[in-house]
Each structure stands twice: as C-alpha cells, then as structure tokens.
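tool_call predict_complex ligand=magnesium ion
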Amino acid sequence: MSFFKKIFSKDKKEKLDEGLEKSKSSFFGKLTKAVAGKSKVDDEVLDDLEEVLISSDVGVATTIKIIDRIEERVSKDKYMGTDELNQILREEIAGLLSEQEHGNYESLHIPDGIKPYVIMVVGVNGVGKTTTIGKLAQQFKNKGKKVVLGAGDTFRAAAIDQLQIWADRVDVPIVKQKMGSDPASVAFDTVQSAITQDADVVLLDTAGRLHNKVNLMNELTKIKRVMQKVTDNVPNEVLLVLDGSTGQNAFEQAKQFTAATEVTSLAVTKLDGTAKGGVVIGISDQFKVPVKYIGVGEGVDDLQIFNKFEFVDSFFNKA
Ligand SMILES: Nc1nc2c(ncn2[C@@H]2O[C@H](COP(=O)(O)OP(=O)(O)O)[C@@H](O)[C@H]2O)c(=O)[nH]1
Ligand SMILES: [Mg+2]
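tool_result ok
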C-alpha cells in the first residue's frame, strides 16, 4: 500500500513508535492470546479480535466496522491465516480511516491571510491544554511565526504561572490578568495585544471546568463574543485537548464538548505511557472534527502533527 511506503521524518517516527510502545505491547499481547493455537481466522477468532479491539479502547462503533471489513474479506478469500491478521488489521484500519477526509496532516500549518490566527484551547482540567499551548508556541516560533499567549484560565493562580513559565521558556509574550478575573476580558486583551504587536498566532488558554454543559457553553460563548469585539471571525480555531490515557473518557469528553460548543480540531495527549493509544483510531473514525495533534511526551518536541497513516503504521509495526 503506497501510503505506508511514504518516508516520514525519522525522528518523529521513532518518537511515535516509542510513545506507542505500551499500547502496542498490550494490543499484541492480547492478539497473540486470541489466536493462540489457531492457524485460521474463523468466527471464534473474530469474536476474540472484537474483544481485543474494544478492550484496546478503539471504541465499539469503530470496532464493529473493522470486524465487518475483516469478515467480508474472510468470506471472499476463503482461507485467512492468523499469521496474516496483523497485516490485514493494518490495511483495514488504514482503509477505514482513509474514508474520513481529514487526518492527513504533514506539517504545522495556518491558513494564509488570517492574522492573527486565534486558536482557543479548550478541554477539562489536567488534559494537557497549557502544555500543548507551550509546545505549539515553540513550534510556531520555530517556523518564524510571532506568537502571543493568553492566560484565559483565570480559575487557579497556578494555571497562570504555568503558562508564564512556558512563555519564558519559549520566549514569547503573554497577556494575563490576576487570578479570578474574567477570562473573556483576558481574551479581549490578548487579541488586541496580538494585533498591536502584529502577531501571527494567538494561543488562548481556558479553564476546563466541565461542571455542567450549560455553564461551559455560556462561558465559552462569552469568551468568543467578547473577543469578536476586537475583530471578526475569531477564534479561527477551537482546539479541544483530550487526555488519551483516559481511553473511553476522552471519547465522552469529545462528545460533550462538541455538543456544547463548536470545536474545530482535536489534540490527543499523553499517548506515551498508556496502553490506551487505540482510542486515537476510534476518535479519528467517529468524529467529524479532525485530530490535528498528538502528545507523545512532556518535552517541547513531543507534540506531533497527527497523520493517520503514520499512526497506523507505527501502531502495527511490531519491530
Ligand atoms: N507524558 C505526557 N504528559 C503530558 C503530555 N501532555 C501534557 N502532559 C502532562 O499532563 C499534566 C497536565 O498538563 P496541563 O498542561 O497542566 O493540563 P491543563 O490543566 O489542561 O492545562 C502535566 O504534568 C503535563 O506535563 C503528553 O503528551 N505526555
Ligand atoms: Mg492549564
């Protein structure tokens, strides 16, 4: 399959392989058990495979699609050896994901002609919003973009301090107010300051209190409305950050946030050190909103542009 032959950046790929290590070893451990003593893919193997996929956080709906595809293939090919199962899974999952148009990103990109390009970062507490902002700030800066950070998580003093640390580390300006101030006011100041500084990108942090959907929706709507007093059409992107290590919980959060507000892109963090990396497959299949970034570590370079083929390739590469 041609897309697997594509040469991805070696460092990036190695980091991804490394990050997915736990997910892979858990998945292949279960797969090996499921086919133990069997040479042929039959109904029993398919049942077990279904369980392996579901328990690997791929999600029920996506698992059913994958099993259907493999079943169809078995009925056509008549004989399918269990030794081929890994390769077949890889092909069918890549095929399934290719039906979604999104998820083929190659590099960090913002559209031409929008300046500043305002990215509002949302998600519940602890998923990795601030860290993702710091990493993105560095990567945009590396591309020669002028970045301004906005400390819109005014709920906790530590949240503002943490963003300040990233601003210092990456050496980009930050707009902040004191703890407890109105996040919409911080958003307003940030966009205004970015325009004054002729900045290219605004990364706006927000608080992640998902106490209830109505409150969340009201808060995010207000932030948007107030920043639109500075300039039309902002935010240009609403990036929802999900903690991949929470597996199906990440799925639930994606559902709730996309229902509460308009989300335009997703980042799935903490894929390193978890066995639940399969969740990315389900999320890319199930949501119309594209996964744009994945977090594979705490370091500044450990935020990757998500490419579904590269991901599937890493996931099914046993080496
Ligand atoms: N291992 C790992 N840790 C991460 C990743 N992204 C974020 N974290 C950690 O997750 C914790 C919470 O992140 P933070 O950015 O404060 O989350 P926020 O509350 O959503 O802003 C921090 O300790 C981060 O270092 C990742 O991709 N991998
Ligand atoms: Mg934070």
